[in-house]
User: Fold this.
Amino acid sequence: MTEPETKTKTPGKSKTAAQRAEAAPPRVRRTRRAALAAAAAVLAGLAVPSTAGAATGRDPGDAAPAPARYTHQTLNWQPCARQPALDCATMTAPRDWHHPGVGADLTIAVSRHRATGPAERKGTLLMAAGGPGGTGLLRPANLAAGAPAVAAAYDIVGFDQRGVGESTKAVCQTEAEMQEFLAGDYRDQSPAAIDRVIANSRKLAASCQERSGDLIPYLTTEQTARDIDLFRGLLGERKLSYYGPSYASMIGAYYATLFPRRVERMVLDSNIGFDGTWEKYELGQPMSFQRRFDEDFVPWLAARDTTYHWGSTPEQVRAHWEQRRAALHDSPIVEGSVTIGPNQLDSLAMSAIYRASDFPELARILAAVDNWQGLDQATRTAVAKVFASYLSPEFLAEYFAVTCNDTPWTRDLDTWIERGAENTARWPLAGARTLAFSAVCAAWPVAPAPEVKVTGARLPTTLMLNSVHDPATYYEAALGAHRALRGSRLVTVTGSGDHGQYPTSNTCVSGVVERYLLDGEAPARDLTCASPQAG
Assistant:
């Protein structure tokens, strides 16, 4: 399947424009455009083309040398407070790598798992976190545990990227404000519901500017890539190897584009569509989440009706889902500070279908919601906690900063109202939130970051992994990223929709990755690995 068609709209032609004219008079729109233009003018001087230096034989990301206070700092490694298997340190980075003397510095938290086989050490493998919004500081311990052969040969290092975790953080909303943003039913297409969604999205964008405005413009993938190169230098490494799952595939692709001569080997797992814009990529996600839900989870649940009692055919399961969702629309469950409404049901399902191993947990929670009045208090509290754990204010602050900053977004809200309605009707699981999430970027107060065009130029062979039914980093986007990253090799995992393919029980995938990382053997061409559960 292809991504949704992108339509060019004529301003004022939307069926909702007339109703919205009084709510958004021309002078308001002019003021908003003027503010955006002013922000763009201020930021225009910050942009350094990503191809700077290409003709000189230097890396495209090379600019004037960073001040010595960054490049000559020492990493004071100490055992990590939350993970003694790792060492942790902090490094200081410029707020804006294009103007390193302007503005307050940032703190970046970094970590290290030393190679367990020093005699066979091959170098340093850096990994980053997904999201955007995930924290990566403690992830080297997980990779080391799951891939002991790699842990023997590499120092595995990680970090909390700028804006999250123990690094300098962005602040946008309180927990209560975020819950208001996520409240209600995104499927509701009534004028009042649409107005409420847009108002909440604008409020979120404004709160980011109000509370973190001096930081927000510099929370970008390009700035993070430059943080990585500072970390490389402080580690004393001429080159890095890299493993990046999910959004970290985009971080890796940007780093490799800006600093190709500093890449030894690179594995990109479950790939963002880093060949285009965030807008284009996110418009494809409603299809892929729906595909994973309808074609993988629903038949799985139907085959287990004797356990979960949600229907013995896919049609019965889907009907049961719609009935339960409608009931939550009419009467949301309130348990302490947690409200379980239709949006929360959708979000839970989306988070639980990333990996098939989470299907049983999702099924148990659906059965519990069906029987809420019959549950004991301890079970209710536990289930409510699961519903409350999907998103956090910290995650969304970074998520919107990066996705709204990195690449341009359509600013016309009538376009998003129409697209939201189309996606809701066609792919309701994730499509219903199209308006809410996209309207944040439509109202975002800063100009996009400098463009980074991924090409694969001057890079060694890069290894890419993707399953065919991944809900978040969908296969169609991975194909586009693969084409853009010239010389890469794509391992397609069939019979699977899992997000994240390494480390894995799939010996085909593990074998390819570890021959590449440990022996430098890249596949001669693209290849396919069948998922074990596919038989």
About this structure: The two ends are 25 Å apart (CA to CA). DSSP finds 21 helices and twelve strands in the chain.
